[in-house]
Design a protein that fits this description.
644 residues, alpha+beta, six-stranded antiparallel sheet, two-stranded antiparallel sheet, 21 helices, 10 strands
């Protein structure tokens, strides 16, 4: 799923919908998404505010999370790749109501995301104390060396556990000492000759004298209505202090070579023109100026930003000297060279689309006089994607997953670290508190966001937010007591939306039922249906060929020119979404396909693992409703090329 989300950015232009881009600021769209196997097998819902679409997603952890998508991305994922039809109900509202409800969903997203960020911080605290305890318990000569992961450090240092080969940056032409000497001289000129050494001593003292105290669970009780406020955690303070120290030490005395975390590729696609190298020189000067300001920043996390600036500066200088783009490798892990049994067939087409977008962003960056960091980061991100796809195709391997955040942040594990002076009993006590805090906070989040098919799903949460927003709005205006909640929310909903949908209604939790209730209760001025990718293609084919010819060829997965089985789809022979009469008959054949796949999976279980058995069982499950004229499965696609 993550990889598909990143693919969507490549093909947005191809699926642009004028209604999305020019959506009225007075129209809220409630969206019902048809069922398909996989996520949301019973259907799905979302709510759209122009270019922003919100929906609730059932996570593998068993919790339900709100997500915000670009509306074009959302339609591409569900209507095109997911092969699901979408039905939009256009709700006419005032500007004030539109802003009120949109802000309610945006606020819920911010609060929930920060709550889960806090949970991740608590987990990092546990990891930090476990690291301290392990280091204290292991003798210096022990072969079981404990190490600690640090963001971004892989662009300046090699691991002290595993020495890497040199990168594409030429150490003879671009060794760090030569490359960063100008920046170091500018720092000395501005702050004094002893500035760096004094800052290094201060940073070392801070790390030694820091008394690590974990966050206490009693102070952080999550609520859907309040943003979690918490101080800097022990692990965050430790990491920020370490990265600041390493940034200072590196600029004061750079290593003799760069680590293996930069890359490039031959060919015209990455070759730089003379004018482009001139712009890159100007951009390198801009980065140096930013780093000069950053090193004296009062921000506690300045070290990480400084290290990323050094990495980008190194890659730009390497680009200038080599005449071809060089980028930091933004992927979280080193390239895998394990040969894939069957690389995805769409990779070549996807690589072509990525290259087009890369060249488009390249032109925009070099023609713009602003030289914005966000524009170069987008170019860097696409360049990495392009190189990884090219590598995967040439080597016959599966490409690495792109990071969700397009920022170079490869981890480096180090064992030799300056550590706080601590007593073992103190660390053991803090570790126990940290573990308890993480566990208690995780349980509290589970109580708030645990998925429930009937009471807390993709439908109920949308209406609960609307209900809560309208309730608060009415209370503020009428200065009413919260005990009148249902009446206030309902009255305000009738006033603002034209009617009321009860989040706790008997059947409101069912996606297609909720769509009907929206149409019946709210001020719906228009209804629109966006057909699935396969339905659209079938309609186009029937305009050029006879319906019988299209049906005979496209009704099955063997001769279909539209569908190519996705690795995550269960096996089936016939499509049943566009036929009712033949659905039970086709369902029998699909059931047999599922049974056959399961039997083969049992035989090959010792050699291939359990995936074939799982897909076969899933095929049986989704074939059974077809015997009773009910369709769920529609098939999905891995990728659609530009114009596809």
């Amino acid at each position: 799923m993550k990889y598909l989300l990143l693919i969507t950015t490549v093909v947005l232009v191809c699926f642009a919908d004028a209604d999305i881009l020019s959506a009225s600021t007075k129209t809220i769209k409630y969206i019902y998404i048809e069922a398909n196997e996989g996520d949301s097998a019973a259907g799905h819902t979302a709510i759209r505010f122009g270019k922003d679409t919100f929906h609730f997603q059932h996570e593998p952890s068993g919790l339900i999370r709100i997500k915000r998508f670009d509306s074009l991305n959302f339609d591409y994922l569900y209507s095109q790749l997911g092969n699901r039809g979408l039905k939009e109900s256009w709700i006419s509202v005032s500007d004030d109501t539109y802003a009120l409800i949109f802000d309610g969903f945006s606020q819920f997203l911010l609060i929930q995301d920060e709550q889960f960020n806090l949970l991740e911080t608590l987990r990092k605290d546990v990891t930090f104390y476990e690291f301290l305890l392990q280091r204290n318990q292991l003798p210096t000569s022990s072969e079981k060396i404990s190490s600690y992961p640090l963001r971004g450090l892989a662009y300046l240092f090699t691991s002290d556990l595993d020495q890497q080969a040199l990168s594409v940056i030429n150490p003879a032409a671009d060794n760090p000492d030569k490359l960063f000497s100008n920046l170091k001289n500018r720092i000395n000129d501005k702050f004094g000759e002893n500035y760096l050494s004094e800052r290094i001593t201060s940073a070392q003292d801070l790390l030694r004298k820091n008394r690590p105290l974990s966050l206490r669970s009693a102070e952080y009780k999550p609520s859907k209505d309040s943003y979690p406020a918490y101080g800097i955690s022990t692990s965050t303070l430790f990491e920020d202090s370490l990265l600041a120290l390493y940034a200072l030490e590196y600029i004061n005395a750079p290593l003799s070579s760069f680590p293996d975390s930069y890359w490039s590729m031959p060919g015209d696609s990455f070759r730089l023109s003379f004018d482009e190298t001139v712009v890159l020189r100007l951009y390198a000067e801009k980065i140096e100026n930013d780093l000069l300001d950053l090193i004296s920043s009062s921000r506690s996390d300045w070290g990480y930003a400084f290290i990323l600036g050094l990495a980008r500066l190194a890659s730009i200088h390497a680009s200038i000297s080599s005449g071809t783009f060089v980028f930091p490798d933004i992927f979280s892990s080193a390239p895998s060279h394990k040969i894939s049994k069957k690389p995805p067939e769409y990779l070549k087409s996807y690589r072509g689309d990525v290259e087009k977008l890369f060249q488009k962003r390249r032109k925009e960056f070099f023609e713009s006089l602003e030289m914005r960091e966000s524009d170069y980061a987008a170019l860097e991100y696409l360049g990495n994607n392009f190189m990884e796809l090219d590598r995967a195709i040439n080597e016959g391997v599966i490409p690495r997953d792109l990071p969700e955040i397009p920022v170079p942040s490869r981890l480096l594990r180090r064992s030799s670290l300056p550590l706080p002076e601590f007593d073992q009993k103190e660390v053991e006590a803090e570790l126990e508190i940290a573990r308890l805090t993480e566990k208690e906070y995780g349980l509290l989040l589970s109580e708030l966001y645990n998925y429930d098919l009937f009471k807390r799903n993709c439908v109920t949460e949308i209406f609960n937010i609307i209900d809560g927003v309208l309730q608060k709005d009415a209370m503020l205006k009428e200065n009413a007591a919260s005990t009148l909640k249902t009446g206030l929310a309902k009255d305000n909903s009738v006033k603002r939306l034209g009617g009321y949908v009860d989040p706790a209604g008997k059947l409101s939790f069912i996606p297609f039922v909720s769509s009907g209730e929206v149409d019946a209760c709210y001020s719906v001025t228009e209804k629109r249906v966006k057909r699935s990718y396969r339905s659209e293609r079938l309609a186009e084919m029937k305009q050029r060929e006879s319906s019988l010819t299209v049906f005979l060829r496209e009704s099955n997965t063997i001769t279909s020119t539209i569908y190519s089985r996705s690795p995550n789809d269960s096996p089936f022979i016939f499509f049943t979404d566009d036929t009712v009469l033949f659905r039970p008959l086709f369902g029998i054949f699909n059931l047999m396909a599922g049974v056959g796949e399961t039997l083969v999976g049992v035989i090959t279980l010792p050699f291939e693992g359990s995936k074939r058995v799982y897909l076969g069982a899933k095929g049986i499950l989704f074939s059974l409703p077809e015997l009773f004229f009910i369709n769920i499965r529609k098939g999905s696609l891995e990728y659609l090329p530009e114009g596809g």
